[in-house]
Write a structure and sequence with these properties.
single chain, mainly alpha, ATP_synth_b/b'su_bac/chlpt
């Protein structure tokens, strides 16, 4: 009986104790539980992956919709800006036309005023000259009152 014999006896007792307490069943149960837990985690990971794919597709769809909406907004703003520019151009042309018409009216009025002033000055000069000539010719006559009356009458009719 040497040490090898006692090592064999110890090994057989160890296996008997392990078999008595059903350690292989417990190990199998623990391994089964672990594999079930890993399977659940894999299933959850697959579900999360599918959900992430769906969310990515949804975000891409929303991004495309937002791009289309942004293009529509830009196009609308460009149309509105063009309309405002055209309206401003029309108003500007109308304003220039009104101002031109007003300036032409003022020029015509100034011309009429100048012509009237020249005529009035010419009438005054003509009346004064006629009065002077008639006064010199008829200075000797007693018709001075008649001449003054005639000059006043001519002056009132010409003005």
């Amino acid at each position: 009986m040497d040490n090898t014999f006692w090592a064999l006896i110890g090994l057989i007792i160890f296996f008997a104790i392990v078999a008595y307490f059903k350690v292989p069943g417990m190990i199998n149960k623990a391994l089964d539980a672990r594999s079930a837990r890993i399977r659940r985690e894999l299933d959850e990971a697959r579900a999360l992956k599918e959900e992430a794919k769906q969310q990515l597709a949804e975000y891409q769809r929303r991004r495309r919709e937002a791009e289309v909406e942004a293009k529509d907004i830009v196009a609308g703003a460009e149309r509105e800006a063009a309309a405002l520019l055209q309206d401003a151009k029309a108003k500007s042309e109308e304003y220039v036309a009104r101002r031109t018409a007003m300036a032409e009216q003022k020029i015509a009025q100034a011309e009429n005023d100048a012509i009237a002033a020249v005529r009035s000055s010419a009438v005054d000069i003509a009346v004064a000259a006629a009065a002077k000539i008639l006064g010199e010719r008829n200075a000797s006559d007693g018709n001075a009152g008649l001449i003054d009356q005639s000059i006043g009458e001519v002056r009132s009719r010409l003005n």
